[in-house]
Design brief:
about 25% strand, single chain
């Protein structure tokens, strides 16, 4: 290959490398896990959920930590944030 072709190829590769490096190093926050909604019954005999097909809605975050499945309830005020962070992962 000639010297001008090598220089052009090297510039292109350096540009690609820089673009990929910036993409990798973006500081986008993310959260590992699955975010979903479940329905549970509270167990009170006179509650509406005792006769309903589904119970009270709850949102949860589930992830694996050292081979153990972890689950945490996500409050109403945190739902949008947790959904956005899990989708970024």
């Amino acid at each position: 290959m000639s010297s001008p072709i090598l220089k052009k190829t090297l510039r292109r590769l350096a540009s690609d490398y820089g673009r990929l490096l910036r993409q990798i190093l973006r500081r986008e926050q993310m959260l590992r896990g699955s975010f979903y909604q479940v329905y549970t019954r509270c167990g009170k005999a006179h509650c509406w959920c005792a006769k309903a097909k589904k119970g009270h809605p709850h949102t949860r975050l589930t992830w694996s930590e050292e081979g153990v499945m972890m689950t945490r309830k996500v409050g109403t005020e945190e739902r949008k944030t947790v959904l956005k962070l899990t989708q970024a992962y």
